Amino acid sequence: MKLRHQVYRVFRSCWLQILLLVLTAPCWAQDLSLGIEAYQAQDYAQAHDVLMPYAQRGEPEAQRIVGVMYLLGQGVGQDLEAAQRWIRGSAQLGNPQAQELLSFMYNRGAGLPRDPVQAYVWLKLASQSVSDPAHSDGIQTIIARLLGEMDETDRKRARSLSRDYYYQYVAPFM
Q: Contact, 75 vs 91, CB < 8 A?
């Protein structure tokens, strides 16, 4: 009898947690969209206040936007280290815009050492999610240029890393 009562309590507790999650999820999405809207309206202080808790909890779009805010000094002091940390976190969670942005940072040496191999790898990952033909053509042009900057050893390393990163940072989110 005692075991049955314990199982019932655990079962009831799990259902209550699931119900609470389901009922509050729309509120989370609404708050996140309010942060994105504030960013788009260039209300950077409000966007930062709303998006930062989401970024800290690992929400990829919030992380990307917070990273851009630090990269450009929008509503916060410009901090390239914080920018790359937030953008990398978003990129590693499969956000293609963050992957493209991280590639740009490696390509330009913005907050990171210039590294054509890493620039290629992150841009190649981002290209997996691009549906706009003009955007895709632009990405392919940059990829070709990056490959042209590398020697054969770096090209092999870039292609190998690209495959590894795909299974780590893209495939799980498809």
A: no
pLDDT at 19 (0 to 100): 38
Cβ(69)–Cβ(44) below 8 Å: yes
How many residues are listed for the chain in this entry? 174
- Determine the pLDDT at residue 139: 94
Radius of gyration over every alpha carbon of the chain, rounded to an integer in angstroms: 20
Q: Give the Cα separation of 95 and 174 in Å (integer).
A: 11
Q: Where are the domains of the chain?
A: 1-93, 94-174
166 CB neighbour count, 10 Å cutoff: 15
15, 16, 126, 154 from 9: Cα distances, Å: 10, 10, 46, 58
Low-confidence ranges of the chain (pLDDT < 50): 7-8, 10-12, 14-28
Q: pTM (2 decimals)?
A: 0.81
| Cα separation values, 134 from 119, 139, 154, Å | 20, 9, 28
Both structure tokens of 163: 């495959």
Burial 125-144 (b: 16+ CB within 10 A, else e): bbbeebeeeeeeeebeebbe
Token output for 31: 């708050």
pLDDT digits (tens, 9 = 90+) for 79-126: 999 999 999 999 999 999 999 999 999 999 998 999 999 999 999 999
